[in-house]
Amino acid sequence: MLRSSSVKYSSLLTRFRLRGRALSTQPASASLGCLPTTDSPVVSKLAFFNSVTGDGSKIPSYRVLDGLGIPIEGAEVPEACISEQFARRLYENMQLLPTLDNILYNVQRQGKISFYYGEEAAVIGSAAALADDDDHVFRVLAQYREVGVLLWRGFTIDRVMAQCFGNHEDSGKGRQMPVHFGSKPHHFHPISSPLATQIPQAAGVGYALKRDPERRSKNVACVFFGEGAASEGDFHAGMLLASTLPSPTLFLARNNGFAISTPSSQQFYGDSLSARGPGYGVDTIRVDGNDVLAVMSAVKEGRRRCLEGGRAVLVEIMTYRVGHHSTSDDSFAYRGRQEVENRKKIDNPITRFRLFMESRGWWNETEEEELKSRLKQDVLAAFKRAETLKKPDLAELFTDVYAEEPWNIREQREELAGLLEKYGQVWEPWRNELKIFKDEGKLSG
């Protein structure tokens, strides 16, 4: 019985081997088929891979202008949208950002505001590509450095100062930390302090937009974050959600080389963030973040893919953080001062675009000095005005969270009203402090 079974097995194996030899002239992928539940072809060669380019090379970075503002060979300048007027608007906004940064950094050092973040001018390229129009709305979920997006959309310098000082003109009513902007009219979601929380939120916003017939193919959720935030689990959760469901979510990763004091070389070993996109089945591009035209073109193409395909897109914007991480950071403790000065001179995004404009006869030295002087005056005027305005009504402490005031909030409000009535005018520290509020601390019990 055992011998008979062995003969039958041997005969069956021989037939399979003969059949295999008969098909061996076909490519391995065709002869061996695919694994179940996947389109991955079966091969007979043992081979590991560690690159998305196929040949082991690094993912390239898209660029339009070189360091001297000259279009590189083969690059296409977006002539259709780069008129002299538009270029001037780009440049003015790029110059406005460092002007704001310098003044608000000094204001924080003087103790007049509690905190401040700055950012490189390259964010203006993204802002220009995400400008709303009559048919499309691009909803922004930012991190801490995207005030340029708001300024491009018409957010005034006065409103920037109002938010940083937390006065009564602040739409957030002084409840947020400085530079944690939010503006419903500008489709700019309020910023949260916890790192990377906006990434999965953006994927959810994108999914909600796709489910709404009136906004489908018209709205995109756009989320900004740094490469440090991409080390959080929220990055992977957001990418997985937006790619699997899928949803029109544009992931804009600012890779400026540092997560506070940790250089990117110590954050990840692979080919930076762009290598992660294909792993989630997401269209991906890496772009020179110091080239405003390249950033604008890449983000504009990314938004088109989101709108037309209803799927996520990842844009990695490569730049360098020349400033400190924030006003609580001294970056020269972990990098050389000369390194920063060299980057300012060699690869300055403002200088690069200025040279491009000068080459076309759109800019000159006189206009440069006039612009810098005007912007400084405008920012200083807004600063001086903001610091004289009073804080929001003290009563706002208890509003906006609930549609109807619950019993516990009512009890707290009544308790504070009683304390103010008893001590507000007799205890000097309270009497002085209440004067800074618009309603001078008058609460109804």
TrEMBL record:
Transmembrane segments: none
CDD domains (UniProt xref): TPP_E1_PDC_ADC_BCADC
Example of a GO MF term: branched-chain 2-oxo acid dehydrogenase activity
A Pfam family reported for this protein in Swiss-Prot or TrEMBL: E1_dh
Catalytic activity of the protein: N(6)-[(R)-lipoyl]-L-lysyl-[protein] + 3-methyl-2-oxobutanoate + H(+) = N(6)-[(R)-S(8)-2-methylpropanoyldihydrolipoyl]-L-lysyl-[protein] + CO2
Function: The branched-chain alpha-keto dehydrogenase complex catalyzes the overall conversion of alpha-keto acids to acyl-CoA and CO(2). It contains multiple copies of three enzymatic components: branched-chain alpha-keto acid decarboxylase (E1), lipoamide acyltransferase (E2) and lipoamide dehydrogenase (E3).
Top EC category: oxidoreductase
A biological-process GO annotation: branched-chain amino acid catabolic process
Domain of life: Eukaryota
Domain Dehydrogenase E1 component residue range list: 93-393
Family: Belongs to the BCKDHA family.
InterPro entries referenced in this protein's UniProt entry, alphabetically: Alpha-ketoacid_DH_E1_comp (IPR050771), DH_E1 (IPR001017), THDP-binding (IPR029061)
EC number(s) recorded for this UniProt protein: 1.2.4.4
Entry protein name: 2-oxoisovalerate dehydrogenase subunit alpha
Keywords recorded for this protein, A-Z: Oxidoreductase, Thiamine pyrophosphate
